[in-house]
Design goal:
heterodimer, A: 529 residues, alpha+beta, Herpes Virus-1, 8-stranded mixed beta sheet, B: 96 residues, mainly alpha, Serum Albumin, Chain A, Domain 1, 5 helices, extended, translocation (chain B), transport (chain B), transcription regulation (chain B), nucleus (chain B)
Chain lengths: 529, 96
C-alpha cells in the first residue's frame, strides 16, 4: 500500500502527514504511561470499540489470536469461508466473532451482524468494511508486530509501514548534521570500455549495487591511506566507490587502477582479450578477501572478511554406497552455485542441442537438478566401509548454509577438448526465489518420508528462505567475441531497475530484466532488503 | 449442482493442502512479472492513487477498478501457460 492512502483517508487527523503517522505519535508519547489510550486510531469506526475498555480488550485478544492464525502459513484452514466453503481467495477473519469469510460473504456478515472489521488471512492487516479500506491502528499494529516477532523467533522482523518514516525531529537532526553528497552521486554511473573490459564492468556494477559490499566501502571499511599492501585490489575498489558515490560526474568512469591491479595480480588477465565474467568475479572476490584482512586458511577457521560474510555459503555432499549404505559426508564453503543447463541423462548422448524441448527451463528446475541424487560412475568412488568391492554409489549435493548474497552461475559455456560452445537458451528466473527446497534440512526431511515437501509447510520455524533478485549479468553474442551487459536494482534495494551497458546507464523495466538470457544471477536474502 | 460444489471444494482443499496452490500462485506471479503485466498494473495503481480520483473509495474501489481494467490485459501466452499448469496439477490429482 502506498503511504499516500494514509493522507487521503478522511478520518486521519488534519495535522501534517508525518505527525499523523502512528510511529510519530508513539515517539511523542512518554513511555511511562503507555497504558493511556492512544490519541490516534486506525479510523473512526475502530475508535469506538477500542475506547470502551471491556470491548477494546476483547478486540485486542481476538486480534492477537487471529493474527497468529493468519501469519502461520502452515494453517491452511484459515483460507476457507464458513459460508460458501470456497477456498481459493483471500479470506477475512472476523474481529468480533470466530468466523472466516470470503470477501463477499464477509461484507454480508459485516452488515448483518454489525461486525465491521475483518482481518486479512494472508497478511494480518485490518480491513474496515465501513471505510472500505485497510486501516492501520497503532494499538493493533503493535499486537501484530509482537506476534510476528514471536512467531519468527525475532530473527526476521517484518518492517512496519511507518518504521521507515523518520519523525520531523529526526529529519531536522539529519538535515543539520549532514553535508549533502553531490546530488548526482547516486552510484548510477557507467564504466568506459577500455578494450574488451565489459566483463569487468558488469562484475563491478554487481558489486557496486550490492548493499553489503557498498555499505562496507562507504563506511570506510577499507582505508587506502592506511593501507600498505602493494597491488591492493581493495584500494582500487575503494577508488571506484568514491568515484561513484562522492562525485557528481555522470560520464563513464575508466577504472584504470583496478584494471592495472588486476593485470599485476593475475598475468592471464593482462592484454585486451575478452574474459569470462564469472572467472573474473571469482578472481576479484578472492583478491578482495585477501586485501581486507581475510584469513589465509579459510578451511580451518571461518573468515570474517566482508566477502566471506556476504557471499559464502556451505555445500554438503553426501555420497552413499549402494552396497553397504554407508554415507560419506563432506561440507565445503562455496561462493556461488554453478548450475548445469542440460538434463543429465541427455548429456552424453547428444551433446550439441537439447534445447527447445517442451516448456522453458526454469532456474528452480536447474536448482532441483543440482540438488538431486546422481549416480556416480564405476570408478569414481571407492567405499571405505566395504572396501575391495567396486560398488555403485550415489551422490547428492545440498545447501547446508545459505549466504546473504547468493550468486548463481548458469553454465552457458562449455569448453570441450576440441571446441567450446555456448548454450543460448532462455532460462526463466523469478524476482523472488525460495531456496528452502534445496537446503540440506529440507532434502533430508523429504527423504525421511514426510509426504509434503512444499515450499513452506514442513519447515516450521526454518524458512522460507526468500531471496530477492539483485543483479543480472547477461552475455550476448558469440562465445569468444560477444558483449556483457548487466541489470541492477537501484541502490540494490529499490523498485527501479537499471541497465548497464559500458558507459550507458538506462532505466529498465521488470520485463527487460526477466526476459534477459542471464549468465550470472545475484539474489539477496529478503530480511535485509 | 450441489455435487459440483462438493467436488469443487474437494479439489480446492487438495490444492491447498498439497501446497500446489502456492506453487501455482508463485508461477503465475513469475509469469506476470516476466511479461511486464505486473509492473504495468502497479503503475496503474500508483497513478490512480496519485490522481485522487477515488478519494472516497479506498482499497475496495481501487481493486474493483484495477480488476476491471487490467484483467483483460493479461497476455494470452501467460493465460495459456497457466491453464496448462493447472491442468497438469489437476490431472495428477485424478490419477493419485
Amino acid at each position: 500500500m502506498s503511504p499516500t492512502t494514509v493522507l487521503k483517508r478522511p478520518q486521519a487527523p488534519s495535522a501534517s502527514a508525518l505527525s499523523a503517522s502512528p510511529k510519530a505519535v508513539k515517539n511523542n508519547k512518554p513511555p511511562a504511561n503507555s497504558s493511556v489510550a492512544p490519541l490516534v486510531y486506525g479510523c473512526d469506526h475502530i475508535k469506538k470499540p477500542l475506547q470502551n475498555p471491556a470491548e477494546g480488550n476483547k478486540i485486542k485478544t481476538h486480534y492477537g489470536d487471529a493474527t497468529r492464525v493468519a501469519l502461520d502459513s502452515s494453517r491452511t484452514h484459515a483460507q476457507a469461508c464458513v459460508k460458501c466453503k470456497f477456498l481459493i481467495t483471500r479470506t477475512f477473519l472476523c474481529m468480533q466473532c470466530p468466523s472466516i469469510h470470503c470477501p463477499k460473504d464477509a461484507e454480508a456478515h459485516s452488515k448483518e451482524r454489525r461486525h465491521y472489521f475483518g482481518i486479512d488471512s494472508r497478511s494480518g492487516h485490518v480491513y474496515c468494511f465501513v471505510c472500505q479500506d485497510f486501516v492501520y491502528d497503532p494499538v493493533l499494529e503493535e499486537i501484530r508486530m509482537e506476534r510476528e516477532v514471536a512467531m519468527e523467533g525475532g530473527a526476521r522482523k517484518r518492517r512496519r509501514l511507518d518504521d521507515i518514516k523518520p519523525s520531523p525531529e529526526d529529519l531536522k537532526c539529519i538535515e543539520t548534521h549532514t553535508t549533502l553528497a553531490p546530488c548526482k552521486a547516486t552510484g548510477l554511473r557507467g564504466f568506459l570500455n577500455m578494450g574488451s573490459t565489459c566483463f569487468m564492468s558488469v562484475v563491478l556494477q554487481s558489486l557496486i549495487h550490492n548493499p553489503l559490499v557498498r555499505n562496507f566501502y562507504l563506511a570506510d571499511g577499507h582505508k587506502p591511506k592506511e593501507c600498505v599492501q602493494t597491488n591492493c585490489m581493495s584500494c582500487a575498489m575503494e577508488e571506484v566507490f568514491s568515484e561513484f558515490f562522492a562525485t557528481d560526474k555522470t560520464d563513464g568512469f575508466g577504472p584504470v587502477k583496478l584494471l592495472t591491479t588486476s593485470w599485476k595480480c593475475e598475468q592471464t588477465l593482462a592484454g585486451y582479450q575478452q574474459q569470462d565474467a564469472h572467472e573474473y568475479l571469482q578472481f576479484l572476490l578472492n583478491q578482495l578477501h585477501a586485501t581486507n584482512g581475510g584469513n589465509s586458511d579459510t578451511k580451518t577457521e571461518p573468515c570474517k572478511c566482508i566477502i566471506h560474510r556476504a557471499f559464502y555459503g556451505k555445500l554438503q555432499s553426501d555420497v552413499t554406497c549402494e552396497g553397504c549404505q554407508n554415507v560419506t559426508t563432506a561440507v565445503d564453503p562455496v561462493m556461488d552455485l554453478s548450475l548445469d543447463l542440460r538434463k543429465k541423462d541427455k548429456r552424453r548422448l547428444d551433446a550439441p542441442k537439447s534445447e527447445g524441448e517442451g516448456a522453458m527451463q526454469t532456474l528452480q528446475e536447474c536448482l532441483e537438478r543440482f540438488t538431486s541424487t546422481e549416480k556416480l560412475g564405476m570408478n569414481e568412488y571407492n567405499c571405505g566401509n566395504c572396501s575391495g568391492h567396486q560398488e555403485v554409489a550415489t551422490k547428492q549435493l545440498t545447501v547446508k548454509r545459505l549466504p546473504p548474497v547468493l550468486c548463481i552461475q548458469l553454465k552457458r559455456f562449455e569448453h570441450g577438448s576440441t571446441k567450446s560452445l555456448k548454450i543460448d537458451t532462455k532460462i526463466r528466473f523469478p524476482m523472488q526465489l525460495d531456496m528452502t527446497p534445496y537446503t540440506t534440512r529440507a532434502k533430508r526431511k523429504a527423504k525421511d518420508g514426510s509426504t509434503d515437501c512444499g515450499p513452506r509447510s514442513s519447515l516450521k520455524g526454518h524458512g522460507p528462505y526468500l531471496y530477492d533478485l539483485l543483479s543480472v549479468v547477461v552475455h550476448t553474442g558469440q562465445i569468444n567475441s560477444g558483449h556483457y551487459i548487466s541489470f541492477s536494482r537501484e541502490n540494490g534495494q529499490g523498485q527501479k531497475w537499471f541497465r548497464f551497458d559500458d558507459s550507458m546507464v538506462t532505466l529498465a523495466s521488470e520485463k527487460d530484466v526477466l526476459s534477459a538470457k542471464a549468465y550470472l544471477l545475484f539474489y539477496i536474502i529478503r530480511s535485509l532488503s | 449442482m450441489s455435487q459440483d460444489t462438493a467436488l469443487r471444494s474437494e479439489v480446492n482443499r487438495r490444492l491447498l493442502e498439497s501446497g500446489e496452490l502456492e506453487r501455482l500462485e508463485a508461477l503465475f506471479l513469475d509469469l506476470l512479472r516476466e511479461s511486464g503485466w505486473y509492473e504495468n498494473t502497479k503503475n496503474t495503481c500508483t497513478e490512480k492513487l496519485r490522481s485522487g480520483g477515488l478519494a472516497s473509495g479506498g482499497f475496495n474501489r481501487l481493486t474493483e477498478e484495477v480488476e476491471r481494467e487490467c484483467r483483460e490485459t493479461v497476455p494470452e501466452g501467460v493465460r495459456l501457460e497457466m491453464v496448462m499448469a493447472i491442468k497438469k496439477v489437476l490431472e495428477g490429482m485424478v490419477e493419485g
